[in-house]
Specification:
alpha+beta, 217 residues, four-stranded mixed beta sheet, 50% helix, two-stranded antiparallel sheet
């Protein structure tokens, strides 16, 4: 009998720890598939806009972090911490190449509404595509034409995507983690983890979620 773990993942595209957390989660899920092939993980991506007051076109990336952290040294230390964590899971992040800190409302709106157009696999490709465009290709993910290009590259038809991006009636409502920040993982509405946790921890919590299901039965 198939068992389902429902997993809500709260994230924002501009958060490198969310990208790192996604990679760690995939490692954990792959391990779960090997040890518990009868279990499927149903992921629901919950978009959180960390900077809702960000101008629509964003602001210069370096200026944003300098203002946020207070000094060039603090910025270098924070970014090096992130780079090392990312490198540990095979992800290269070059902050020097990122020109702007974007407003992510349009990207979140696209991702949430695109779920109605294609299956979960293509939806994940779109999520990966937006992450890659921002962290690896220095693209402005607050720009509608950029998002349309990413979506069509991921296999979506241009017409429905353009309709989502152009429609004023498809607002994005940011999810709320109750002050837990992002990434934030909630397993079966019961077990929660905050931060980019190691794959071993995520895997263990999935096992605990399965044990709880057995107790309920």
């Amino acid at each position: 009998m198939k068992l389902i773990i429902d997993l809500d993942v709260y994230f924002d595209f501009i958060c490198p720890w969310c990208l790192i957390g996604k990679r760690q989660l995939q490692v954990a899920i792959d391990k779960l598939k090997r040890t518990h092939p009868q279990v499927d993980v149903n992921i629901r991506w919950r978009g959180v806009q960390l900077l809702p007051a960000m101008p629509i076109d964003g602001i210069p990336f370096k200026a944003f972090y300098l203002q946020r952290l207070g000094s060039s040294m603090a910025v270098r230390l924070r970014q090096e911490q992130v780079r090392q964590a990312a490198k540990g899971i095979g992800v290269e992040i070059d902050f020097e190449r990122i020109p702007r800190m974007p407003n992510t409302a349009k990207a979140h709106s696209l991702l949430s509404n695109a779920l109605k157009l294609e299956d979960a696999k293509r939806h994940d490709l779109l999520l990966e595509g937006i992450y890659s465009a921002y962290f690896h290709h220095s693209e402005n993910i607050s720009d509608a034409s950029t998002l349309e290009k990413i979506a069509t590259y991921c296999g979506y038809e241009a017409g429905p995507i353009k309709a989502i991006l152009d429609s004023p009636n498809v607002p994005f409502v940011s999810a709320n983690t109750g002050g837990k920040g992002v990434p934030y993982f909630v397993f079966d509405g019961t077990f929660a983890l905050a931060g980019a946790q190691p794959a071993t921890i995520l895997y263990q919590v999935m096992l605990e979620s399965l044990e709880a299901k057995e107790i309920e039965v």
